[in-house]
Design brief:
about 350 residues; alpha/beta; Rossmann fold; five-stranded parallel β-sheet; four-stranded parallel β-sheet; 14 helices; 9 strands; about 40% helix; globular
């Protein structure tokens, strides 16, 4: 596939206060859940990224947008980026974060998830879950009037993918037409990247071992979105072919949390999928390397790549804060508390 990548700094075509994607997303998403990228339209994905860029550019504008809003984070898995970025995000917009460590007591073990949801909706404005089972996310969403955000499940990682593509749009100017290659396990991160890339018009290539392909239902959904947006989704098994001409090479760990017992089995299967200097040389000269982190250095990626000049892994980690602030603003109706949106509405 020929690349349409253009590296540029892009100013918004219209102010965010008058952007039709953002205004429509603010109206539709207030009070809704974000369990999957598939919950969003292509325009809503664009709105989150545009709002995230404005939040990053001018954070003081939003410092009281979520005054007195309460967020609870319930995490069954260890976290660095997810926890800190969500807590910092709501705190810097006037709200408050409460953290419940569920690593020793998974949700649903002490009391039914439905009961937890019906309790939380009486105290909390938004629930952020990091859980082993995607069913936990959907069950909580079905049993709480407070919006539920999937911060990570075994099936998707929507907040990560939003931050990743926000980073790519900063770097290239637009995701539309980019050749985005994912190499490794067809896991939760891969699922969200396929859907987000399709929403934004990127050509997504996924290279996985044959027994570790992404879920066929997600593939079908992503292909439908890609068709509507004039882009392409390809599934391959050869990482060398997948890397040719890529604007982006992305990988994740080959042994995700919860699959540690498969480490010895997976290591030889995924060895040919390592992102190393030789694989990066097959990509376009301007190509960037991405990883959701934490990385198993010199396993799925070499030190030379992750620490090299093409790596933007810490930029994408930094953008978790801004993309998630945009999500919180939209789900909690926070733009109604931002003065510049009032002025634009009355002008």
């Amino acid at each position: 596939m020929n690349s349409n990548a253009i590296i540029e700094d892009r100013e918004p075509a219209v102010p965010v206060e008058k952007d039709p994607d953002i205004l429509a997303a603010a109206a539709r998403l207030a009070g809704e859940d974000l369990c999957s990228i598939a919950d969003l339209s292509s325009a809503e994905v664009r709105a989150i990224l545009k709002l995230g860029r404005d939040v990053k550019r001018d954070p003081r504008k939003y410092r009281h947008a979520l005054d007195a809003k309460q967020m609870v984070l319930m995490f069954e898995k260890a976290s660095l980026r997810t926890r800190i970025s969500f807590e910092t995000g709501i705190n810097t917009m006037g709200g408050n974060a409460l953290f419940l460590d569920q690593t020793k007591s998974p949700l649903g073990e002490r009391e039914p998830i439905a009961d937890v949801g019906h309790n939380l909706e009486r105290w909390i404005d938004v629930i952020v879950l990091r859980t082993s089972a995607h069913d936990t996310i959907t069950e909580m969403a079905a049993n709480s009037s407070a919006p539920v955000i999937n911060a990570l499940s075994d099936f998707e990682h929507p907040c990560q993918a939003l931050a990743d593509f926000m980073t790519l749009e900063e770097h290239f100017g637009s995701a539309a037409g980019l050749n985005f290659t994912y190499v490794g396990d067809g896991n939760n991160v891969c699922h969200s990247l396929m859907l987000t890339g399709a929403h934004l018009g990127a050509n997504v290539t996924v290279a996985t071992p044959c027994s570790y392909s992404p879920d066929i239902n997600v593939v079908t959904k992503a292909q439908d979105i890609a068709h509507a947006n004039g882009c392409e989704l390809r599934l391959l098994q050869d990482p060398q072919v997948a890397a040719v001409g890529a604007d982006v090479i992305y990988t994740d760990v080959c042994v995700s949390m919860g699959f540690e017992h498969e480490a010895a089995k997976r290591e030889p299967i995924f060895r040919p999928y390592q992102v190393n200097e030789a694989l990066m040389q097959k990509a376009a000269p301007h190509a960037v390397f991405m990883h959701c982190l934490p990385a198993h250095r010199n396993s799925e990626v070499t030190d030379g790549v992750i620490d090299g000049p093409q790596s933007i892994v810490f930029d994408e980690a930094g953008n978790r804060l801004h993309a998630q602030k945009a999500v919180l603003l939209l789900l909690l109706g926070g733009l109604a508390n931002v003065e510049s949106f009032h002025v634009a509405a009355n002008s």
